[in-house]
Amino acid sequence: MRLTPGVLEQAIKLDQAGTADVSADLNEEWLTPAGVLVPLVERRVGDHFGYHVLLTRRARHLKNHAGQISFPGGRQEDYDDSLKHTALRETYEEIGIKPSQVKIIGELPQHTTITKYVMTPFVGILPPTYSLTIDPSEVDEAFEVPLSFILDKKNQQLQSAMFQGEKRYYYSIQYHSYNIWGATARILVEFSKRIHHTFDHCLEE
Protein backbone atom coordinates (compact mmCIF):
# COMPACT_ATOMS: atom_id res chain seq x y z
CA MET A 1 0.00 0.00 0.00
CA ARG A 2 1.41 3.36 -1.04
CA LEU A 3 1.74 6.17 1.48
CA THR A 4 -0.46 8.97 0.09
CA PRO A 5 -1.72 12.26 1.54
CA GLY A 6 -5.04 10.50 2.17
CA VAL A 7 -3.37 7.75 4.22
CA LEU A 8 -1.39 10.37 6.12
CA GLU A 9 -4.56 12.30 6.91
CA GLN A 10 -6.20 9.12 8.24
CA ALA A 11 -3.18 8.48 10.45
CA ILE A 12 -3.22 12.01 11.82
CA LYS A 13 -6.92 11.80 12.70
CA LEU A 14 -6.58 8.55 14.67
CA ASP A 15 -7.98 8.70 18.19
CA GLN A 16 -5.34 6.87 20.18
CA ALA A 17 -3.07 7.45 23.16
CA GLY A 18 0.27 9.14 22.64
CA THR A 19 3.69 7.68 23.26
CA ALA A 20 4.52 6.57 26.79
CA ASP A 21 7.78 8.46 27.17
CA VAL A 22 6.45 11.98 27.75
CA SER A 23 9.22 13.45 29.87
CA ALA A 24 7.66 16.70 31.07
CA ASP A 25 4.93 17.18 33.64
CA LEU A 26 1.61 17.85 31.92
CA ASN A 27 0.27 19.27 35.20
CA GLU A 28 2.61 22.27 35.11
CA GLU A 29 0.61 25.46 35.64
CA TRP A 30 2.82 27.45 33.31
CA LEU A 31 3.59 26.12 29.85
CA THR A 32 4.43 28.29 26.84
CA PRO A 33 2.44 27.39 23.69
CA ALA A 34 4.48 26.68 20.57
CA GLY A 35 3.65 25.58 17.05
CA VAL A 36 5.95 23.43 14.90
CA LEU A 37 5.74 22.18 11.34
CA VAL A 38 6.37 18.56 10.40
CA PRO A 39 7.28 19.17 6.74
CA LEU A 40 6.96 16.27 4.29
CA VAL A 41 8.18 16.27 0.70
CA GLU A 42 7.71 13.50 -1.86
CA ARG A 43 10.96 12.32 -3.45
CA ARG A 44 11.69 9.77 -6.15
CA VAL A 45 14.25 7.14 -5.17
CA GLY A 46 14.95 4.80 -8.08
CA ASP A 47 11.62 3.56 -9.41
CA HIS A 48 9.70 4.46 -6.28
CA PHE A 49 8.32 7.56 -4.63
CA GLY A 50 8.41 8.17 -0.91
CA TYR A 51 8.11 10.98 1.59
CA HIS A 52 11.03 12.63 3.32
CA VAL A 53 10.86 14.69 6.52
CA LEU A 54 12.61 18.07 6.54
CA LEU A 55 14.38 18.78 9.84
CA THR A 56 16.69 21.52 11.10
CA ARG A 57 19.68 21.70 13.39
CA ARG A 58 19.27 24.58 15.81
CA ALA A 59 22.04 27.16 15.99
CA ARG A 60 24.70 26.24 18.55
CA HIS A 61 24.64 29.65 20.27
CA LEU A 62 20.95 29.48 21.26
CA LYS A 63 20.00 29.44 24.94
CA ASN A 64 17.62 26.47 24.72
CA HIS A 65 18.17 23.21 22.81
CA ALA A 66 21.32 24.56 21.14
CA GLY A 67 22.57 22.33 18.32
CA GLN A 68 19.67 19.90 18.64
CA ILE A 69 17.65 18.50 15.77
CA SER A 70 14.18 20.00 15.61
CA PHE A 71 11.21 20.85 13.45
CA PRO A 72 10.91 24.42 12.21
CA GLY A 73 8.68 26.35 14.57
CA GLY A 74 8.65 28.20 17.86
CA ARG A 75 6.83 30.10 20.54
CA GLN A 76 3.40 31.57 19.88
CA GLU A 77 3.40 35.37 19.82
CA ASP A 78 0.49 37.66 20.68
CA TYR A 79 0.06 38.64 17.03
CA ASP A 80 -0.32 35.03 15.84
CA ASP A 81 -3.90 34.17 14.89
CA SER A 82 -3.41 30.51 15.78
CA LEU A 83 -0.73 27.94 16.54
CA LYS A 84 -0.86 26.90 12.88
CA HIS A 85 -0.01 30.48 11.99
CA THR A 86 2.85 30.31 14.51
CA ALA A 87 4.27 27.16 12.89
CA LEU A 88 4.07 28.64 9.39
CA ARG A 89 5.47 32.03 10.43
CA GLU A 90 8.39 30.50 12.29
CA THR A 91 9.11 28.14 9.37
CA TYR A 92 9.35 31.12 7.03
CA GLU A 93 11.53 33.07 9.44
CA GLU A 94 13.89 30.15 10.13
CA ILE A 95 14.30 28.50 6.73
CA GLY A 96 12.52 30.74 4.22
CA ILE A 97 9.64 28.48 3.14
CA LYS A 98 6.57 30.63 2.52
CA PRO A 99 3.23 29.64 4.09
CA SER A 100 1.72 29.53 0.59
CA GLN A 101 4.10 26.64 -0.23
CA VAL A 102 2.83 24.47 2.62
CA LYS A 103 -0.34 22.37 2.46
CA ILE A 104 -1.35 21.57 6.05
CA ILE A 105 -3.03 18.16 6.20
CA GLY A 106 -3.54 17.79 9.94
CA GLU A 107 -2.51 18.31 13.53
CA LEU A 108 -0.82 15.80 15.84
CA PRO A 109 -1.23 15.60 19.65
CA GLN A 110 0.59 18.15 21.78
CA HIS A 111 3.94 17.36 23.39
CA THR A 112 5.70 19.09 26.25
CA THR A 113 9.40 19.77 26.69
CA ILE A 114 11.65 20.03 29.74
CA THR A 115 11.98 23.74 28.95
CA LYS A 116 8.24 24.09 29.71
CA TYR A 117 6.90 24.47 26.19
CA VAL A 118 3.79 22.71 24.96
CA MET A 119 4.24 22.05 21.25
CA THR A 120 1.48 21.49 18.73
CA PRO A 121 2.81 19.77 15.58
CA PHE A 122 1.17 20.47 12.19
CA VAL A 123 1.91 18.10 9.32
CA GLY A 124 2.39 19.84 6.01
CA ILE A 125 3.28 18.83 2.45
CA LEU A 126 6.00 20.80 0.63
CA PRO A 127 6.52 20.92 -3.14
CA PRO A 128 9.61 18.96 -4.28
CA THR A 129 10.96 22.21 -5.74
CA TYR A 130 11.02 24.07 -2.43
CA SER A 131 14.08 26.21 -1.72
CA LEU A 132 15.61 27.27 1.58
CA THR A 133 16.83 30.59 2.94
CA ILE A 134 18.31 29.68 6.32
CA ASP A 135 18.52 32.27 9.09
CA PRO A 136 21.90 31.54 10.73
CA SER A 137 20.83 33.28 13.93
CA GLU A 138 18.36 30.42 14.52
CA VAL A 139 19.37 27.47 12.34
CA ASP A 140 22.73 25.92 11.43
CA GLU A 141 21.43 23.63 8.69
CA ALA A 142 18.41 21.79 7.28
CA PHE A 143 18.32 18.24 5.96
CA GLU A 144 15.89 15.53 4.88
CA VAL A 145 15.33 12.07 6.38
CA PRO A 146 13.38 9.38 4.49
CA LEU A 147 10.10 8.74 6.26
CA SER A 148 10.64 5.03 5.58
CA PHE A 149 13.75 5.19 7.81
CA ILE A 150 11.71 6.73 10.63
CA LEU A 151 8.89 4.21 10.18
CA ASP A 152 11.34 1.32 10.68
CA LYS A 153 10.90 0.43 14.35
CA LYS A 154 14.50 -0.81 14.52
CA ASN A 155 15.60 2.79 14.16
CA GLN A 156 13.51 3.99 17.13
CA GLN A 157 15.52 3.48 20.29
CA LEU A 158 13.95 4.11 23.71
CA GLN A 159 16.65 5.31 26.08
CA SER A 160 16.86 6.73 29.59
CA ALA A 161 18.88 9.35 31.45
CA MET A 162 18.87 11.03 34.84
CA PHE A 163 17.58 14.60 34.81
CA GLN A 164 17.21 16.68 37.99
CA GLY A 165 17.35 13.53 40.09
CA GLU A 166 14.71 11.67 38.08
CA LYS A 167 15.04 8.90 35.52
CA ARG A 168 13.47 10.04 32.28
CA TYR A 169 12.86 8.12 29.08
CA TYR A 170 13.24 9.48 25.59
CA TYR A 171 13.37 8.25 22.02
CA SER A 172 16.45 8.51 19.85
CA ILE A 173 16.67 8.07 16.08
CA GLN A 174 20.20 8.01 14.68
CA TYR A 175 20.34 8.98 11.00
CA HIS A 176 23.91 9.14 9.70
CA SER A 177 25.60 11.78 11.90
CA TYR A 178 22.28 13.24 13.09
CA ASN A 179 21.00 12.21 16.51
CA ILE A 180 17.27 12.98 16.59
CA TRP A 181 15.98 12.76 20.14
CA GLY A 182 13.74 14.36 22.75
CA ALA A 183 10.44 15.91 21.73
CA THR A 184 11.32 15.82 18.02
CA ALA A 185 11.89 12.05 18.09
CA ARG A 186 8.82 11.57 20.29
CA ILE A 187 6.62 13.34 17.74
CA LEU A 188 8.09 11.28 14.90
CA VAL A 189 7.52 8.04 16.81
CA GLU A 190 3.95 9.07 17.60
CA PHE A 191 3.37 9.83 13.91
CA SER A 192 5.00 6.51 12.96
CA LYS A 193 2.70 4.55 15.27
CA ARG A 194 -0.34 6.19 13.71
CA ILE A 195 0.84 5.41 10.19
CA HIS A 196 1.50 1.76 11.09
CA HIS A 197 -1.93 1.49 12.72
CA THR A 198 -3.58 2.96 9.62
CA PHE A 199 -1.75 0.54 7.31
CA ASP A 200 -2.71 -2.44 9.50
CA HIS A 201 -6.35 -1.33 9.60
CA CYS A 202 -6.48 -0.93 5.80
CA LEU A 203 -4.99 -4.39 5.29
CA GLU A 204 -7.67 -5.93 7.52
CA GLU A 205 -10.51 -4.45 5.47
UniProtKB/TrEMBL annotation:
Family matches, as Pfam families: NUDIX (PF00293)
Domain Nudix hydrolase: 31-176
Keywords of the record: Hydrolase, Magnesium, Manganese, Metal-binding
Keyword flag Protein biosynthesis: no
UniProt GO MF annotations: coenzyme A diphosphatase activity; magnesium ion binding; manganese ion binding
Cofactor: Mg(2+); Mn(2+)
Gene Ontology biological-process entries: nucleoside diphosphate metabolic process
InterPro entries in the cross-refs: CoAse (IPR045121), NUDIX_hydrolase-like_dom_sf (IPR015797), NUDIX_hydrolase_dom (IPR000086), NUDIX_hydrolase_NudL_CS (IPR000059)
CDD domains found in the cross-reference section: NUDIX_CoAse_Nudt7 (cd03426)
NCBIfam families: PRK10707.1 (NF007980)
Similarity field: Belongs to the Nudix hydrolase family. PCD1 subfamily.
Name of the molecule in the record: CoA pyrophosphatase
Native species: Pleionea litopenaei
